[in-house]
Amino acid sequence: MAMNDQQSPWGQRKKPSSPEDILAAIIQKIRDTFAGQDEGPGQPPDRKEPEQPQGPFAGTGKIVPIIALILIFQVLYSSFFTIAPGEVGVVLRFGKFDRTTTSGLHFKIPYMEALTKVNVEAVRTEEFGFRTRTPGRQSDFDRKGFDMESLMLTGDKNVINVAWIVQYIVSDPVNFLFKVQNVPQAVRDASEMVTRRIVGNMDFDYVLSNREILAGNARRELQEELDNMESGVKVITLQLQDINPPDQVKPAFNEVNEADQDMKRLVNEAEETYNRVIPKARGSAKQIIEEAHGYAVERVNRAKGETARFTSIVNEYLTAKEVTRRRMYLEAMQDILPNVDQVYVMDKGQQTPLLPFLDLSRKQGKNPAADTTSPAAAK
Question: What is the CATH number of the domain that holds 232?
Answer without folding.
Answer: 3.30.479.30
